[in-house]
Amino acid sequence: MFIIVGTYHRSVQGGLIIRPYNYEHRKKLLGIGIVYFPNISNQQVSFHNKHLIKRGNLKTTDSFIEAINRRKCTIGIIGLGYVGLPLAIEFCRQKFPVIGFDIDPDKIEVLNSGESYIKHIPSDRISLIRNSGLFEATADFSRIVNTDAVLICVPTPLSSHLEPDLTYIITTAQSIAPYIHPGQLIVLESTTYPGTTEETLIPELEKGSKLKAGEDFWVAYSPEREDPNNPKYSTSTIPKVVGGFTDECRKAACALYDEIIVRTVPVSSCATAEATKLMENIFRSVNIALVNELKMIFHRMDINIWEVIEAAKTKPFGYMPFYPGPGLGGHCIPIDPYYLTWKAKEYGMMTRFIELAGEINTSMHEYVVHRTMEALNEIGKPLKGTKLLVVGLAYKGDVDDTRESPSLALIELFEGKGAIVSYYDPFIPAIPKTREHPQLTGRKSISLDEAGNFDAAVISTKHSVVDHRILAQKCTLVIDTRNALGNEFPNVKQA
Ligand SMILES: NC(=O)c1ccc[n+]([C@@H]2O[C@H](COP(=O)([O-])OP(=O)(O)OC[C@H]3O[C@@H](n4cnc5c(N)ncnc54)[C@H](O)[C@@H]3O)[C@@H](O)[C@H]2O)c1
Asked: Is 450 helix (H, G, I), strand (E, B) or coil?
């Protein structure tokens, strides 16, 4: 018999979650016994890790769904980045309490003070959810115990050898496992290869919690389809694919997303949902590579690729436009295809098509440098010693995200050939620290007024707030990789 003083709360499933104050008690109490708690009659409980959980009266998925409908369901969102933050806002908008978890103390502080740190998410959206009392950010993972559904939105980068780096998912699983409890739903949203949820996430969760996925808690995979700053679609209006570890897992996850998203698309397994996300991004990567290749061919033929695309997209069926550029950027398209490439090898398969697309897209950096050298040559200038302005540092227009941005690669390549390079980006006053280009960290954007001090400008990203015509007027030469200036100016060359 134990006498313990602690706190308790009832989970959505009706289970009793008990947390003794004394850590020594927590360690000892693994097994079955009787516990006296203030305010609770004698309870038979099973002791699970750091929490003591009353079993036997866990309810069904239906009671979880009922709790969702009654908004008696606290959402935990792990990773308050480009994916996690919009999700948190959406759940709060639908009156769910949300606890946001992150390991970055700066982000936690900014968000708790009601500010945003992402350009396209205005601060008033954060202050609104803070003032409503529904949202709080924390680094204290023990508070997972107070949540009923946990959505994992942490990064899934590549290693330096272009292999999947699941460290963030594994660390997250290890951080939350001691605090998960029966009747909880855990959903992985990070993009990854088929098999991650069942082969990596679930074993870590089971090991750290001593609970069984599909029996004690539900697990699902639902990929994020966020398109930052897309005026047409936002988190709530993009249909969401959901695969469950079991049918009940899928049912629970769909019920939750149905409350905030226009349509959920259930699929038969976590692996199918994981594969769906990769297929979508590989589709983009391959088609961008195709149009990049066509751009180079048409340039030799003196045909403008942009004009060709405009004409082709008038076909009402069987064609969808993709646009060329200086190379891929962002957290998804340059990275995700390699997740499948790596996994396919386990099955003795090579992903030739996917890798060829990656090769072509990566070669675009060199192509832009080559075109710049050609154009400079035409006006009798070598690249070495030329004062060059790279315009746009973000990986795409109208965002402030520099992850995998081709502009960073271009700056390095130009400097490697002796050019004197500066950049201009109204949304990125200084270059943040990146894994691939640490030596560029801290460089500051010049002002567009200074454009006349440069021999040439290279438009790498097209922000709609930038008047690119100023470049054509002030610089001897402009290299345009985004068709920002069309063919209005004779000193503007496409690349
Ligand atoms: N950005 C997009 O447009 C987009 C779109 C679709 C899918 N995705 C996928 O979503 C996932 C997240 O991407 P993102 O763009 O939101 O990344 P992000 O870098 O903007 O955000 C991730 C957050 O997770 C935090 N974090 C890292 N490790 C953590 C841990 N152990 N515990 C808690 N927090 C942790 C980081 O501090 C960061 O705030 C990735 O798998 C990405 O491929 C992103």
From this structure: helix
**What is the structure's pLDDT at 20?**
53
Amino acid at 67: A
Q: Is 329 helix (H, G, I), strand (E, B) or coil?
A: coil
Three-class SS state of 36: strand
Q: Say which residue the tokens 């850590």 belong to.
A: 23
What is the DSSP annotation of 126-149?
A: HHHHHHTT-EEEES-GGGGGG-SE
Coarse DSSP helix, strand, coil percentages of the chain, rounded to the nearest 5 percent: 40, 20, 40
Alpha-carbon Rg for the chain in angstroms = 26
Q: What are phi and psi of 278, to 5 degrees?
A: -65, -40
- Asked whether 389 and 422 are in contact (CB, 8 A), the reply is yes
187 C-alpha to center of ligand 1: Å?
Answer: 14
- Write down the CATH number for the domain with range 61-268: 3.40.50.720
Residue 209 Cβ inside 6 Å of ligand 1? The answer reads no
How many helices, marked H, and strands, marked E, lie in the chain?
15, 19
Q: Among 20-34, 187-201, 338-352, 416-430, whose mean pLDDT is lowest?
A: 20-34
pTM of the model: 0.88
Catalytic residue among 73, 92, 332, 475: 332
Distance CA 273, CA 378 (A): 51
Closest residue by CA, ligand 1 atom 25:
79
| SS3 at position 47 | strand
C-alpha 430/C-alpha 445 separation (Å) is: 6
In the CATH scheme, what is the homologous superfamily, with its name and number, of domain 311-494?
A: NAD(P)-binding Rossmann-like Domain (3.40.50.720)
Active site residue 332: yes
Q: Does ligand 1 lie within 6 Å of residue 400's CB atom?
A: no
Q: What pLDDT score does 331 carry?
A: 86
Tens of pLDDT, residues 383-409? 999 999 999 999 999 999 999 999 999
How large is the average pLDDT for residues 376-388?
A: 97
Residues 6+ apart with CB under 8 A from 289: 356, 357, 358, 360, 361
Q: Which of these, 81, 134, 90, 133, lies nearest to 110 by C-alpha position?
A: 81
DSSP state of 366: H
Within 45-164, residue ranges assigned H as helices are 61-69, 84-93, 105-112, 123-131
Chain mean position to CA 86: 11
Which of 456, 459, 447, 487 is CA-nearest to residue 474?
456
Q: Which pLDDT does position 435 carry in this prediction?
A: 85
- d(CA 60, CA 2) in angstroms, rounded, equals 30
